[in-house]
Amino acid sequence: MRSMLTIVSGFFAILALIPIKAFPVSLVEIKKLDFPNNVHSVRFSPRSSYFAVRTEVTYEVYNSKFKLLPTKPCKYLEDLHEYEMVFSPDERYLLLGNCQGKKTISILNLQTLKIEKTLKTKGSGIWVTSMLFSPDGEFFVAGSSHTAINIWKAKKGFKHHTLLKGYSIGNYAMAFSPNGEYLAIGNQNRFIRILNVKSGFSMYKIINTRKTENANFMNNISFSPNGKNFIASCSYNITTWKVERDFEYVNEKNINEALYNFGDIVFLTKPTNAIFVINSGSKIVMGKIEENFKVNKALHLSNKEINCIDYSPNGRYLAYGESLINDDMTVKKYARIFEVVD
What's the pLDDT at 7? Predict the structure, then answer.
């Protein structure tokens, strides 16, 4: 639903023309893809060989030159509200949540461009709400709209490994630490559970964000690229913890406007490792990691809604899904792709 931890064209135009110390990069638009339906997810593959877009009714896959590849559409589900997708670390597969029906995960082979296998989730939960691979590609994890977390052994033909039960409703946010040691799971009740992967996904720590005055919904969680910081977007607030200090609380920033049900977190790792960006409806929040995730800039554009955002691992591109409301109240839906320039 999020994509994990994901900007508006007006900002990019400003950024390209005006020097901003906190953001020493320029972005040049190279592609604008027009869609009849809202763009809910954009994803770059781990080696930036592929780019994928998920809308309310279908998905599209592009190669590294953003040429459209031929694929078959998903099954249309009228009451679907979750549009998760994720690439496997080896770029062999693109996994699509709820593509062939409720409680399903379709595995698209990127060589044949055909659905190779469909996984069925176990336990409670109608929709697949979040999906991710461990950094080494050993495990594939899917959260549900209710209380179950499913884990498969990805390197063993996606053999079902375990079912974690008793988790609170709405597991919409999940993240592995870069070294694969921890799996963090956030949900609607605003608790973040940190699991130890090496000890069989046992409970390591519970972080309670209920103490946050205005926090009422967990949007997205992420580890910084170097694994030293952990960050969560939760309603009005951005909260950070120090992983190397046993997830010690660092600070909390109130951005004055609810992140609502968006809040993808991405890190601009090239040419700098210092910038993080969070999308929030019509607001874009940006800051510097080395300043304890200080929010340096928050831009609000009332006629745009940013649904999702992602940054290519090779450091060359940033993409987002946008709904643009025109003066006549018609709505245009786009996926925009920008090149990151030093």
Answer: 35
Q: Facing residues of 194 across strands?
A: 184, 205
Q: Rounded CA gap, 22 and 24, in Å?
A: 6
- Other beta carbons less than 10 A from residue 67's beta carbon: 8
Q: 332 to each of 37, 260, 325, 327, how far by Cα in Å?
A: 9, 21, 7, 11
Segment 264-275, tens digit of pLDDT: 666 655 545 555
Instruction: Please choose, from the candidates 191, 223, 184, 189, the residue with its C-alpha nearest in 3D space to the C-alpha of residue 207.
Output: 191
Choices 2.130.10.10, 1.10.1780.10, 3.40.50.720, 2.60.40.420: CATH for 9-341: 2.130.10.10
Domain definitions of the chain by residue range: 9-341
Burial of residue 342 (CB within 10 Å: 0-12, 13-18, 19+) is: exposed
Q: Distance (Å, rounded) from C-alpha 280 to C-alpha 260?
A: 7
Q: Of 4-18, 253-267, 297-311, which has the strongest mean pLDDT? A: 297-311
Out of 116-120, 209-213, 310-314, which region has the weakest mean confidence (pLDDT)? Answer: 209-213
CA-to-CA dists, residue 188 to 40, 148, 168, angstroms: 20, 13, 7
Q: Is the pLDDT higher at 170 or at 55? A: 55
| Per-residue DSSP letter, 156 | G
Residue with tokens 């309310």: 56
What is the pLDDT at residue 44? 96
**What beta strand segments (E) does 134-264 contain?**
139-144, 149-153, 159-164, 173-176, 182-186, 191-196, 202-208, 218-223, 229-234, 237-242, 248-254
| Cis peptide upstream of residue 24 (ω within 30 degrees of 0) | no
